[in-house]
Structure formats: structure tokens, C-alpha cells
């Protein structure tokens, strides 16, 4: 198992949790973004910069993703593709996407897109809370511990 991070929109506090987890579990993690991102020096943590453009980072992650890899993303279509490739997708608030939940999320996303296209203001996501951070850290730890024998270690 490797960890891939859709890093352009990943909150800094979540990246810090991921950095600690990669070191602690000795799991290879790659942050993918279209702008430079600082990462701590580590044999387990890498950064990959991709060109700017619609879904370029998402496409790079899907291209490199192996079955059972974990992707950290709040992007619903990317999470759906990860599940199609038998990977795991965890959002920055700690929700592990499943086949059932991803369908509901895709439907809601399409509905909200329709509302926005018709001029209705739908607002953005709520601010990240301490509870969200704890939920993310707890679910990340559970997932990594459960799949510890499949972690890519150096």
C-alpha cells in the first residue's frame, strides 16, 4: 500500500497528520499537486509537481495507483475512480468512501452543480474542525494498521 495525496486542496493540518503517519508506519507517500508544496525530508515522503490544468493531478494519481493504495482526496470523481481500481479513498474529514457512499456523493455533487448552474448560491464546505482532524487521524490510523502487512516499506 502506498499513499497518494491530492495535495492542491488538502488542508495543511491534514498534510501534517499524513507526514507523521508516513514516518511512523514507514509507508511511501506521494503528494501530487500543480504548484510547489513543502514536504519534510524523509525517505518515505515525496512530492510530484504536475502541469496546471483540469484534473491533471487526479489523472496522474489514477495512472500510478495500484490496487489497495490509499488516496487522500475530497474530490468525489477522483474517489470514484480510485474505488473502481480497487484502491481506498479517504477524504480530509476522515470519511472512507465506499461503493455505496460514493454513488450518493456523486448524485449530490451533480445535483449541487445543477443548482449552481441555475444561479442558486449553494455555499462552500464548512470549515475544518478539531473533530474533523481527529476523525481523519483516527480513520487513517485504523486503515494503515489494518493493512500494515501490505505497506510499501524501504
Keywords for this entry:
alpha/beta, 5-stranded parallel β-sheet
Number of strands: 5
Give the class from helix and strand content and strand pairing: alpha/beta
Order of helices and strands: EHEEHEHEHH
Q: How many whole angstroms does the radius of gyration measure?
A: 15 Å
Strands in their spatial order, largest beta sheet: 3-2-1-4-5
Note poorly predicted spans.
Answer: none
Shape descriptor: globular
Classify the helix fraction into a percent range. Answer: 40-55%
Summed up, the helix count is 5
Report the biggest beta sheet as strand number plus sense, adding barrel if it closes.
5 strands, parallel
Average pLDDT value?
Answer: 89
Portion of residues in beta strands equals 5-15%
N-end to C-end Cα span: 12 Å
Amino acid at each position: 500500500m502506498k499513499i497518494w495525496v491530492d495535495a492542491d486542496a488538502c488542508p495543511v493540518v491534514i498534510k501534517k497528520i499524513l507526514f507523521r503517519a508516513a514516518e511512523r508506519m514507514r509507508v511511501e507517500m506521494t503528494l501530487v499537486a500543480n504548484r510547489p508544496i513543502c514536504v519534510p525530508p524523509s525517505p518515505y515522503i515525496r512530492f510530484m509537481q504536475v502541469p496546471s490544468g483540469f484534473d491533471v493531478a487526479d489523472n496522474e494519481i489514477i495512472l500510478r495507483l495500484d490496487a489497495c493504495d490509499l488516496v487522500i482526496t475530497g474530490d468525489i470523481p477522483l474517489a470514484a475512480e480510485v474505488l473502481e481500481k480497487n484502491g481506498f479513498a479517504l477524504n480530509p474529514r476522515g470519511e472512507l468512501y465506499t461503493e455505496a457512499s460514493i454513488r450518493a456523493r456523486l448524485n449530490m455533487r451533480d445535483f449541487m452543480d445543477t443548482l449552481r448552474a441555475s444561479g442558486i448560491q449553494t455555499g462552500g464546505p464548512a470549515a475544518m474542525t478539531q473533530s474533523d482532524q481527529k476523525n481523519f487521524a483516527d480513520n487513517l490510523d485504523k486503515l494503515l494498521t489494518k493493512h500494515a502487512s501490505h505497506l510499501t516499506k524501504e
